[in-house]
């Protein structure tokens, strides 16, 4: 008798960075879990997906988004926007602070079918909108309330501080030092927005420890990861060696090609590739969403396995869920995405400064499976053309 399974994905190229695997294999799903790799002919499947010519990846994890729908100008509701992009898990990067986190949780996290996580903004109000930056005065950091949020809600995976000249104002190093002290006291991770830093970037990374994250790492304002000569600053390399993580969080303009291209040439690849998507950048041609951003890194020469690693295995490890999320190995949760890698397109990756990079390949999302259920499928995958 043939073994029964719910879904058989047949003939696709399995891309599983955690196991350094990229080869044609069948993939079977039962009861929301991935089964050990086996031959299609041994299985009786409720539904068969013909994936010949397509890539099968773990469900993507977008490690930097703004999804406080209804509570922040930046927010959008994640499921309808992100599931069709192959994204099955996402991390909100500080949209809410200790004062409004419970509202974010009730209105977004508990209503979403996706796996959602959050960094808590050090400012109690979080990031309300572009014309009204967070109150950064350390006098208002609310340690007892921050502690209570972290104790109560396990999806909170750290603190977030925007160390940006426009926000930090005259406070200099004080917000970073106070936020770090709180993060260390609560034994949690700190994510620092390092765009337009009010001090040399290396003065920020020098204070970060293993597991802390610098986001917008390829930004080009004020002080960057590069020496004048073009190489990576030795102090930035030292921070990476010490375990500080670097998140691209590109958005429409949180990177600069004058930094990004030389940095990749030097081998300074991102630990995490994330979008920093907001309501105003979602579907915008300068970022669109994670599949287009991943395509940019592919065109810049990063190998496919490494591109997918930076939005599956790596963020899953940061979340401490590497055996359940971000992998296609047997026993993992069946969060899966299917893409076509189109290699005959003319695609221009333009950023907010008007700088462009011309490419010829793009990852097009075709299907998303969440806990063993198909939650998105492009109609084209239903047919084979003669
Ligand atoms: Zn952000």
From TrEMBL:
MF-aspect GO terms: deacetylase activity; hydrolase activity, acting on carbon-nitrogen (but not peptide) bonds
Sequence ranges assigned to domain Amidohydrolase-related in this UniProt record: 248-375
Superkingdom classification of source: Bacteria
UniProt xrefs under InterPro entries: Amidohydro-rel, Deacetylase_Atu3266-like, Metal-dep_hydrolase_composite, Metal_Hydrolase
Protein name, as recorded: Dihydroorotase
């Amino acid at each position: 008798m043939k073994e029964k399974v719910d879904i058989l994905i047949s003939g696709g190229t399995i891309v599983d960075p955690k196991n350094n695997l990229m080869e044609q294999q069948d993939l079977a799903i039962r009861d929301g879990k991935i089964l050990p790799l086996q031959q299609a002919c041994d299985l009786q499947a409720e539904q068969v997906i013909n994936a010949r010519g397509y890539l099968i990846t773990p469900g993507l994890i977008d490690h930097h988004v703004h999804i406080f729908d209804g509570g922040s100008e930046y927010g959008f509701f994640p499921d309808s926007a992100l599931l069709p992009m192959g994204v099955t898990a996402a991390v909100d990067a500080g949209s809410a602070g200790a004062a409004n986190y419970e509202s974010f949780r009730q209105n977004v996290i508990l209503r979403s079918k996706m796996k959602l996580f959050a960094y808590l903004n050090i400012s109690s109000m979080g990031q309300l909108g572009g014309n009204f930056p967070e109150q950064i005065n350390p006098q208002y950091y609310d340690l007892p309330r921050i502690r209570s949020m972290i104790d109560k809600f396990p999806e909170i995976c750290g603190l977030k501080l925007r160390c940006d000249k426009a926000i930090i104002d005259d406070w200099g190093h004080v917000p970073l030092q106070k936020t770090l002290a709180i993060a260390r006291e609560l034994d949690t991770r700190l994510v620092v927005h390092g765009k337009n830093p009010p001090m040399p970037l290396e003065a920020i990374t020098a204070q970060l420890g293993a597991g802390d994250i610098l986001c917008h790492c390829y930004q080009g304002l004020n002080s960057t990861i590069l020496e004048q000569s073009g190489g990576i600053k030795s102090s930035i390399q030292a921070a990476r060696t010490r375990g500080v993580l670097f998140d691209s969080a590109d958005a429409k303009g949180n990177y600069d090609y004058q930094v990004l291209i030389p940095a990749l040439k030097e081998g300074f690849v991102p630990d995490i590739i994330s979008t920093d998507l907001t309501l105003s950048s979602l579907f915008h041609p300068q970022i669109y969403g994670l599949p287009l951003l991943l395509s940019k890194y592919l065109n810049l020469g990063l190998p496919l396995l490494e591109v997918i690693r930076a939005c599956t295995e790596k963020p899953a490890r940061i979340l401490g869920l590497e055996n359940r999320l971000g992998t296609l190995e047997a026993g993992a949760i069946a969060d899966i995405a299917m893409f076509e890698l189109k290699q005959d397109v003319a695609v221009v990756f333009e950023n907010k400064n008007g700088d462009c990079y011309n490419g010829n390949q793009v990852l097009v999302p075709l299907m998303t499976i969440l806990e063993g259920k198909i939650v998105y499928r492009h109609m084209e995958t239903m047919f084979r053309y003669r």
